[in-house]
Design goal:
The complex is a heterodimer.
Chain A: E1 16-17, E2 20-24, H1 30-44, H2 47-61, E3 67-69, H3 71-77, E4 81-86, H4 96-109, E5 114-119, H5 123-135, E6 139-144, H6 145-150, H7 152-160, E7 164-168, H8 175-188, E8 193-196, H9 206-214, H10 216-229, E9 235-240, H11 244-250, E10 260-268, H12 279-282, E11 284-288, E12 290-295, H13 320-327, E13 332-337, H14 338-352, H15 358-370, E14 379-384, H16 392-398
Parallel strand pairs in A: 4-14, 5-6, 5-8, 6-7, 9-10, 9-14, 10-13
Antiparallel strand pairs in A: 1-2, 2-12, 3-4, 11-12
Chain B: H1 2-25, E1 29-35, H2 41-54, E2 58-62, H3 73-84, H4 89-102, E3 108-112, H5 114-120, H6 122-131, E4 136-139, H7 151-156, E5 160-161, E6 164-165, H8 171-179, E7 185-188, H9 201-212, E8 219-222, H10 228-235, E9 240-243, H11 245-254, H12 265-292
Parallel strand pairs in B: 1-2, 1-9, 2-3, 3-4, 4-5, 6-7, 7-8, 8-9
Helix pairs in contact in B: 2-4, 2-12, 10-12, 11-12
Classes of the chains: A alpha/beta, B alpha/beta.
Chain lengths: 403, 293
Amino acid sequence: MSKPNSYRTGPDGAGRFGSHGGRFAAETLMPLILELEDAYRAAQADPSFREELDYYLEHYAGRPSPLYFAERLTEHFGGAKIYFKRDELNHTGSHKINNCLGQILLAKRMGKTRIIAETGAGQHGVASATVSALFGLPCSVYMGEVDVERQQPNVFRMKLLGSEVIPVSSGSRTLKDALNEAMRDWVTNVADTFYIIGTVAGPHPYPEMVRDFQSVIGEESKEQILKAEGRLPDTLVACIGGGSNAMGLFHPFLDDEGVKIIGVEAAGDGIETGRHAASITGGRPGVLHGNRTYLLQDEDGQITEAHSISAGLDYPGIGPEHAWLHDVGRVEYSSATDADALAAFQLCSKLEGIIPALEPAHALAHVAKIAPDLPKDHIIVMSMCGRGDKDIFTVAEMLGVTI
Amino acid sequence: MSEAIAEIETGRARIDARFKKLRGEGRAALVTYVMSGDPDLETAAQIMAGLPSAGADIIELGMAFTDPMADGPTIQVAGLRALKAGITLEKTMAMAADFRRHDTDTPIVLMGYYNPIHAYGVPAFLATAKASGIDGLIIVDLPPEEDAELCLPAIEAGLSFIRLATPTTDDARLGAVLENTSGFVYYVSYAGITGAGSADADTVGKAVSRIRRHTELPIAVGFGIRTPEQAKGIASVADGAVVGSAFIDALRDSLDESGKATATTVSAVLDLTKELAAGVAGAQKVAQQGELS
């Protein structure tokens, strides 16, 4: 494949990133999907939309988030300089709020009166519930039964925020099934309902729109690292379920040739066991949830269940732009196991006083692998996309501790 | 070579011939949906074989998928039962081929989602489908925007690509929806998932009239038709009534506690087919009376 002039021009008019992406949606939804695209283009062209979003990002979500030099981890690994982009300090505790603020402002512009969302770890559900409370719209969050069980604190949080949490009992009862059920709700309530998709997936324009709303992560990081180090980083690392925090960090750097970019998928019990959530490493292209991308599937095209300790990464697909960045070789996709992530989770808590979510603990697990062998002037920026309060029950169980 | 061409022509012509025949009889088509391989391959094949004599005019053969985003719980569970019993796309097409050995007239339309076909490979799928006597495709997650994926190759291969039109498909969009549609148009009676709503003949009648202004193709209506009375109502305003979830509910109710077929499974589906066929036939009288008065 020939090298494009820019890695930042996608998607094309049909919503494609190379062969990935597209609009594989039911006819009932298509008119609304096209209307959404028009509304998004109008919002992009309207400076007042950006102004309003920036206002909420700053005064409500608490942006910019700090770029923090993780000195003790750097010392511990003894190699590359490690920076955390601390989106876990945002209001609601993760990067998800960036996108939710953007989408709810769009929902308002479109005159929609009801919000739905899917959630895995509950972070996107909490962020959706939060912005719904802020703008006074009723919100229903679909969440797999398995995830409801392992993310109780977030379930309660969503309820406190006035949202309805609907446990999903179909299929594998995790994020993929929550998405199916949200789509079913959407197709039924298409006239009044806005679906806030939480990741860079779904039918066009969602992957592009969510990427744009999350790109604030990378834009701030760029400015902050230039201020701190006087130059761009050597390596970016972020975890990937659907891939929204990663795309947000990566996208502003895609055309900076010297910056190596690494996405870390969840390897669960290990890729070789088949019990993982690494769709690029262990899947192949297919069509699900409105887009073509790498999917975990059997040879008959049936979607197989993903496995990860982290509910937020427990998804059998990946955003289509990541699929394309893999195909063209701009981003390297690696993976980290449950055990690796758990070790990184504990290490970060003890050395930095930051309890990371299990999702970015996967990114840190990869940093732990590469940092020791890199020179001391090598700069890594890692996306610390969520905080780990929600995960303490899961981690306690894994460690055999009763709390 | 000439055999292959003959097969293409048969495939394309079967749906047209069926609607032409029904028009001659002055009645609408009963289109029945069965999930391939549910609750097991053999039972599903027996049901399929019995459908035409029970009154089904066109058979929609469901292709099971793990993540049927536009389907309600009834069809979701049916697909999972079929997958558990070992159904694959290959076996579904083989089942159609078996059926075709005894019935060369009843059109078979495959209905489902794109990914199993994507995994099979589009050219290989179209070749096998054609050779299996399949006449058309209804693929829920392939709107006109994605016609290059399967719709255009299917038409080229001589298969009908039957598009869904819905209450949200406005006049501006209807042209695009109808452009590459052949065989018939499938009008979805309400915005929602299968098995969740109820088709209202008056509302549907208006929608069908609207679509008729844009196409000469027959218009079949599905979603929310469960009873002979509803089938009759729809058959009096459209060219076909599609019934799905009601059959699967009847099938499910006949299964034993472990979800296996019993002695009544085949007859449960075929008896309902007869009742619905009587409903559709009843609409003929309504239509004729209308013409007479």
